[in-house]
Design brief:
4 copies of one chain form a homotetramer.
Chain A lengths: L5 E5 L4 H11 L5 E6 L8 H4 L16 H7 L2 E4 L6 H10 L3 E4 L9 H8 L12 E2 L2 H8 L4 E3 L3 H15 L8 E7 L22 E2 L8 H13 L5 E7 L6 E8 L6 H11 L6 E3 L17 E8 L4 E8 L3 H15 L16
Parallel strand pairs in A: 1-2, 1-3, 3-4, 4-6, 5-6, 7-9, 11-12
Antiparallel strand pairs in A: 7-10, 8-9, 10-13, 12-13
Chain lengths: 349, 349, 349, 349
């Protein structure tokens, strides 16, 4: 084990960074490298990430591409979109294998990126990343040096719907995705919309009307599955809890479809995928059942009165929706068991 | 004011009963009559309804139709379906004006009732109630002696969608209603599904696949608006909070529809309806903004990419979705101002 | 009712302001006057206080002492300490009866004020206010033109302990007050310490070691009751909920003290106080039982093994701990029934 | 690693059982043995413990002492007090090393057990267990075949106060322990007191007046430290969250005591204890910072005005307060690194 690779966490002071540190501290293969931050550089880790108090001494390091490259074979970048691309480029130039958790490298089409995010910060690298939804892109990830770790909503949405579309069980047109996320998905910066008194006993949608930036990412992945461009109606909601995403997706059944066919399609597509579990017939997933874990729970119901299939998925937005999935990608990339360090069940209840 | 009518609360020991007592205690016209319960009869009000400690002395009374009729001109019945019908019948026989909060008198079609609820407990009265969604049935309520107070989900769903359907702005086919409720909607009986540790940091759907009993009630009311039978895909979810319902409903726009047309349709339909407010364009309702009030907040968005209208509504399930709406019905029936005693804004935050 | 006085709310855009507006909208005597704010002046009320959408048209007014005095016989000032004093002075000069919810006029001793808060903003007025804990200062309030509405923790702490001290049942030395507050007590400004993901599933103390500014206020009021200066150990905690304060106070019994003597002392001291209720023996208060109401629930237990009396109180920090108590003071000052407009039970559950 | 011992979980269907399973699944040395339950025996693990869906196939096993002894070198018993003792006895007779999480073997004095719990179910074994607070009893645990894993409140209370008492910094008389627990501490059985709508937005004390059964356990351990019998005032509270205990303890300083001396006393007592961390001066622990981990965070403040030391501790009641601590005991007993399998930081936020 003399050669366990070291993994830097760039953008370590947000929630995704904290999760990466937590998971890497327990990882059997990767070692936790420097925790890199910008505005909090120089502060003690204990002050910034209180759960690491007594476990990780030292300070948040400022970003220095050479230093990261000198210490670390791989880096997880958890920066905002836009800010991420040049940082990723600097690390790639120095040979670091990068797992980028921003949106900067998730989209294939530069025009779509521009429309939803604006100018790209590293156009030369655009289109060079492998999309890190392991369950659908496992083979390509084995040799990827730049991985675009999927967004939380796209992960949950795609996992739920891909089996139905791949098996031709539902109409790819007219899909409605009603998604609900815990508040940690909004990040660590305090805001009125996440201030406990205005959030704890309330429930609301946001970015309604097809304007959330995860929409084109979902469409890209589902279109790949279908082999033709599709559009979805996607509406996110904020749940008064810290973690978890539940997706409830609606699609019209094609012909005679029953629950068992849906479940079988999912089991087949995700065979050999240790992070995905198809619940027993009749059950519906609960985000609490996967909280803190890298697991995705899926379920399918058929509404015979309206001919709709209701596909559901639950994940932890910070784990399978971010940090855990990034490590899952790294496991595949470095040729170790896919579930290494991320096989723990949920911290339930 | 010598003749302020007295209102009994039958089934006073649940959450709806507690809300009725709260609102009647402050009502300028009705006086709070006996609090009637079954399993808790004889217990002190303070022990059963702790928020009334020091405000309502005495005990929970057992049900006695003659005693209720002797003391009270009107009664609110907050009993489970099935148990409600014979109680309502006994009170009606004695001339009491009844506002029934169960499902027993909400449906028009006895066959539909049988299919979803089983045998009816008072078939002679079936079909004799006025459906108490005041905003749509105000005139009929003025002379009603038996009012079927709507369910919480049907209230929120119908208020959001009726304007679009009445104005012909959306296709009545293919509507998806994704609804989310606080846990008080599950009633006061403890259960694994409402035990705090298994509920507080989790989110889940339940009765998925078109099997929730509020489905036919929603369809009945929307079909009335359309003038033809329609079916909807309805999925309820449980939000880790006490109170509130948010409905997110999806319908395909018919022709060119913009947000202003939707908002105008709602403002016109609900003109003169003090409990309904259409939010400014661009906003989305939050259940917290109506918590504890009899108000409904509505909002409309148009997803131009998919041609869908997203209609949203937020109510407090125990107030506009139950007790407050019942009093609103009683206000109309007794000829006083519709918002009497229920005009308070939300207890925000 | 042609002369119902109008009440301005200065500092209307915080949570206390919102509660004042809510309660004044329903008040049978006072009318809601202008909603005055500083940084949000000119914004629509609906945008700033979403629970008032559709109920209060118009905008947040900038502060203008003349305008307030022209429109309003009384004013509730809900400004931060320091900023409050000059505003109060300007209103008092113009004859407005002022109920000040800041800390600026609560303390009797200017030296103590300086030590805990710094320089005072209106030293001429210092010491001229009546402390608005109605249950202990009712008579003085009847003629007060400037009322210092108590802090939330002092209200809960004093109500619980005053009866024991007044009746000589406990040793005034060595009292420990362990207090717990919902997050709305921290105000409306978002901060890391109130950001939902870092607050919802956590519990912590703050300002530990006798440094919270409510300490001298509690000591002042308890010292008045005792007739000699006393000191208390006061520790506040943050509860992951929006509203409510629970105080658990510990004092050594003097001689033979049982629960009934404690309860009797409280009932006697608070006879004729409609907002205070002493729970039945054996019960402990729950903040939920008073949420949204102006009520205080008290309870007493005796630990025979250690000789300690445990006194508990529960209030809603924004109502009996702020806005409701301010209106209670105004009711007394204007000679109307003390519970006018604030008699509603809690919105439970 | 051919001989990794297998660990049975008896009473696996409650929250502590679920945590034991979660931690054992990831343990580098122990292997998860049978999951044993009583009322749910025969049900699938997935149905009973949804977080294990897809990870632990099979069913909950009925209790059979011979079968447990045949499969498992050690057993964790998470049964209610009273029911636990005979089960433990049966396993001990068969040579199984038992870590008992009930209260049955925690107390030294049979008279005290009888007074607080009633008749003991295995009097021959009474007094034969080692108390499993590793930080204070590490050496005795190395050879223990029966370990009484401490209660959650005693763990948090003792860890906070032992350093102060051991170093003679505070008066052992007059200690007040105000403790606050998440709702999972109440177990998995639904009840009115844990029903979300009556718990989520409320805060309350319970078993007030020195009557909680953890009181004698705390007194036993602190008396050991002091070397003389002491009594404490202990009051537990219920926090509207799932997990976590915060203890705020008050003791009179003896002579000149400052924060640094308190912190140093704690660091010295817990030197070599990987689960305990003394926070930087000025900080207060938050249960969220240890949620899901086996860590205890301690902090000390001195109130100079009253001469009191305020000692605080935060743990996760299900981990360091139960399952994690049990495994920590087993690690010590089986001679492996104390933090094996339980070194993960909190799942924060």
């Amino acid at each position: 084990m003399i050669d366990r690779p070291r993994a830097a966490v760039v953008g370590a002071t947000g929630y995704t960074g904290a999760e990466l540190a937590r998971l890497l501290l327990q990882h059997p293969y990767f070692r936790l490298g420097p925790l890199v931050g910008h505005s909090k550089a120089g502060q003690s880790v204990e002050d910034v990430l209180p759960s690491l108090a007594g476990l990780v001494p030292g300070e948040i390091a400022p970003f220095d591409a050479d230093a990261v490259a000198a210490s670390s074979e791989l880096a997880f970048c958890a920066l905002p979109h836009g800010a991420s691309a040049p940082t990723v480029a600097a690390l790639r130039e120095r040979g670091v294998v990068v797992f980028d958790l921003s949106a900067d490298f998730r989209l294939d089409d530069p025009q779509v990126y521009r429309e939803w995010y604006g100018e790209h910060g590293a156009p030369d690298l655009f289109g060079r990343a492998v999309y890190g939804l392991v369950e659908l892109h496992r083979d390509a990830l084995r040799t990827a040096d730049l991985v675009a770790v999927p967004g939380c909503y796209p992960t949950a949405s795609t996992l739920a719907l891909a089996p139905l579309l791949a098996a031709g069980l539902v109409d790819p047109n007219g899909i409605v995705i009603d998604a609900k996320s815990g508040v940690s998905g909004a990040g660590r910066s305090p805001a009125a919309s996440t201030h406990l008194p205005e959030t704890a006993e309330g429930f609301r949608a946001y970015k309604v009307g097809g304007v959330h930036r995860h929409t084109p990412e979902i469409e890209q992945e589902l279109s790949r599955v279908v082999g033709a461009p599709i559009r979805v109606s996607f509406t996110p909601h904020l749940v008064p809890m810290s973690r978890g995403i539940l997706v409830t997706a609606y699609a019209m059944a094609k012909g005679e479809v029953d629950v068992e066919r849906c479940r079988r399609a999912a089991r087949e597509l995700y065979e050999g995928s240790p992070s995905v579990h198809v619940l027993s017939a009749g059950k519906s997933p609960d985000t609490l059942w996967v909280r803190g874990s890298n697991r995705a729970h899926l379920a399918y119901h058929v509404d015979r009165r309206t001919g709709r299939v209701v596909a559901q998925s639950a994940i932890d937005n910070l784990v399978k929706g971010a940090a855990g999935q990034a490590i899952q990608c790294a496991n595949v990339r470095f040729g170790i068991a896919e579930e290494s360090g991320i096989s723990a069940p949920a911290t339930w209840p």
